[in-house]
């Protein structure tokens, strides 16, 4: 018998509830609704939505059905010769004390005080030690069974609810079970189906087989006119389509970009993934023997191996600064190699973009500027739960005259404040191209601890002066204190914290859960998780009251 025939025969007897019929006859609910809607469209049936609140068992309640209630398990855990309360509490963990209270309330167990040898010694010493007040140690309790057998009323109530007969229980009993989180109320929707205006006609006349589309055979035989076609339902919403979904990193990146733009920053061009060692290291006053320039830490290019277009005048100034110094510095005191400087590599940080940008703006009239970049960088890292060979770096810098460490701290506080962080700490650090340098720490409300969020500093004169000296930079002189304050951080770490991801390999790569990408919430940096948890609790309380 088809589902349509079952529906027509049932509605002939009396109106019925779709969910009850599905459970009684074990019919797939979705298929039942599909057949019902088809008949409703042809006015054979009338359907009204029915919303009802149903009391069901929670996971804890289901556990009680199979393993018994906590109080019954505690009763049977007490041997005939008794057990110390402290030992029993260790067995039951967090639920030990409430369960003990429940057993005492039911009158299933009794307790006797027992004193340890230490407590007996303290009692003997008490008359001698006058005037000294010590904290009294609570005596341990010995627990014994008070009855031989128990009648677990809570378990019986849970069985009644499992059998969907909750109307037999009074409100007080249900409230107690809800407080113990053994039951909950859920809202269910179903349809009450009754006969429609076309029911008699549809069941008495010969059924017409409706065609849903024009088929090839109908055209070949030229009999399509003899068929009856089903009317299109233009009100039907159809199956929801799944469009593109933003990856969590892109959501966090978008929020960071928004913060920079709100502060008046300009975005730098970051389309050079392949960079020369000159712009990536040498222009930043990073010596050629620095460990970061080793093949173990950097991806060097095989083809093209060397860069050709590097400004000759700038290269000479950088070489001089490295070898003998200048601008108040004695340099690194080594023989600088042009061949080493021309090696191509995958950029290891976006500061290479900053050095190019500083060179470009040196050709324009001077004015204070603010720049930022967010893009990929590459390092020869060992892949693990917190490290990738490819990740995103955020960098911002401000160029002006006479900028100080106080300006840097103020701008950093403003930027990270827009990302939801309020408390900051700064720790002295070392970078080859900034002095002074600072590590940035912020207190994360969600994790309830201090975390490192980035690095910062003021660009050294040895890096900055060669980029600007000898250019047509109006109002610029070497004795003027031209300053650049900068800071940087990764995008992956804030993303892992925001979306509670423990392993970075589950965020990027072939192991990414696509459902996490599709169903992931919007990024709301600056919206503490404590507030979200409180709102969820309020919603749950409202649902329980309803």
UniProtKB/TrEMBL annotation:
It comes from the Eukaryota. Residues 116-138 are annotated as: Disordered. Its EC number is 6.1.1.20. Residues 251-528 form the Aminoacyl-transfer RNA synthetases class-II family profile domain. Keywords: Aminoacyl-tRNA synthetase, ATP-binding, Cytoplasm, Ligase, Magnesium, Metal-binding, Nucleotide-binding, Protein biosynthesis. InterPro entries: aa-tRNA-synth_II, aa-tRNA-synth_II/BPL/LPL, Phe-tRNA-synth_IIc_asu, Phenylalanyl-tRNA_Synthase, PheRS_DBD3. The keyword Metal-binding applies. It is an enzyme of class 6 (ligase). CDD domains: PheRS_alpha_core. It is found in: Cytoplasm. It holds the Pfam family tRNA-synt_2d. One of its GO terms (molecular function) is ligase activity. Its main location: cytoplasm. Residues 116-127 have a biased composition (Basic and acidic residues). PANTHER family: PHENYLALANINE--TRNA LIGASE ALPHA SUBUNIT, PHENYLALANYL-TRNA SYNTHETASE. Belongs to the class-II aminoacyl-tRNA synthetase family. Phe-tRNA synthetase alpha subunit type 2 subfamily. This is phenylalanine--tRNA ligase.
């Amino acid at each position: 018998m088809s589902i349509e025939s079952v529906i027509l025969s049932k509605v002939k007897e009396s109106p019925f509830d779709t969910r009850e019929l599905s459970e009684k006859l074990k019919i797939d609910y979705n298929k039942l609704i599909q057949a019902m809607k088809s008949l409703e469209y042809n006015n054979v049936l009338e359907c009204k939505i029915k919303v009802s609140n149903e009391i069901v068992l929670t996971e804890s309640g289901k556990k009680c059905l199979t393993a018994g209630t906590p109080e019954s398990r505690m009763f049977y855990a007490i041997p005939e010769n008794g057990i110390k309360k402290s030992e029993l509490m260790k067995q039951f963990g967090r639920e030990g004390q409430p369960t003990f209270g429940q057993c005492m309330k039911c009158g299933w167990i009794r307790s006797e005080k027992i004193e340890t040898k230490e407590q007996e010694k303290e009692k003997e010493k008490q008359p001698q030690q006058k005037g000294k007040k010590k904290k009294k140690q609570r005596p341990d309790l010995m627990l014994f069974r008070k009855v031989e057998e128990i009648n677990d009323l809570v378990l019986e109530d849970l069985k009644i609810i499992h059998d969907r007969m909750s109307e037999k229980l009074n409100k007080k009993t249900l409230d107690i079970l809800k407080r113990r989180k053994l039951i909950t109320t859920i809202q269910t929707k179903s349809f009450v189906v009754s006969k429609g205006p076309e029911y008699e006609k549809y069941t008495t006349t010969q059924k017409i087989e409706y065609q849903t589309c024009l088929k090839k055979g109908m055209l070949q035989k030229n009999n399509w006119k003899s068929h009856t076609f089903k009317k299109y339902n233009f009100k039907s919403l159809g199956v929801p389509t799944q469009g593109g979904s933003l990856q969590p990193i892109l959501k966090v990146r978008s929020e960071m970009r928004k913060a920079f733009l709100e502060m008046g920053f300009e975005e730098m061009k970051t389309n050079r993934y392949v960079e020369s060692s000159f712009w990536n290291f040498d222009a930043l006053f990073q010596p050629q023997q620095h460990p970061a320039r080793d093949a173990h830490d950097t991806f060097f290019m095989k083809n093209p191996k060397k860069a050709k277009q590097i400004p000759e005048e700038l290269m000479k100034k950088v070489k001089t600064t490295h070898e003998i110094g200048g601008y108040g510095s004695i340099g690194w005191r080594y023989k600088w190699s042009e061949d080493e400087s021309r090696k191509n590599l995958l950029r290891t940080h976006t500061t290479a973009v900053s050095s190019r940008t500083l060179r470009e703006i040196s050709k324009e009239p001077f004015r204070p500027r603010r720049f930022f970049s967010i893009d990929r960088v590459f390092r020869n890292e060992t892949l693990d739960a917190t490290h990738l060979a490819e990740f995103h770096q955020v960098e911002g810098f401000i160029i002006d005259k006479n900028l100080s460490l106080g300006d840097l701290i103020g701008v950093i506080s403003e930027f990270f404040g827009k990302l939801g962080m309020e408390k900051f700490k700064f720790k002295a650090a070392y970078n080859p191209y900034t002095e002074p340098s600072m590590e940035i720490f912020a207190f994360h409300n969600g994790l309830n601890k201090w975390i490192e969020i980035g690095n910062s500093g003021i660009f050294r004169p040895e890096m900055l002066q060669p980029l600007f000296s000898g250019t047509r930079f109006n109002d610029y002189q070497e004795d003027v204190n031209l300053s650049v304050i900068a800071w940087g951080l990764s995008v992956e770490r804030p993303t892992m914290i925001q979306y509670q991801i423990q392993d970075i390999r589950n965020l990027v790569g072939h192991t990414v859960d696509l459902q996490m990408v599709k169903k992931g919430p919007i990024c709301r940096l600056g919206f503490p998780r404590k507030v979200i948890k409180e709102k969820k609790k309020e919603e749950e309380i409202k649902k329980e009251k309803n």
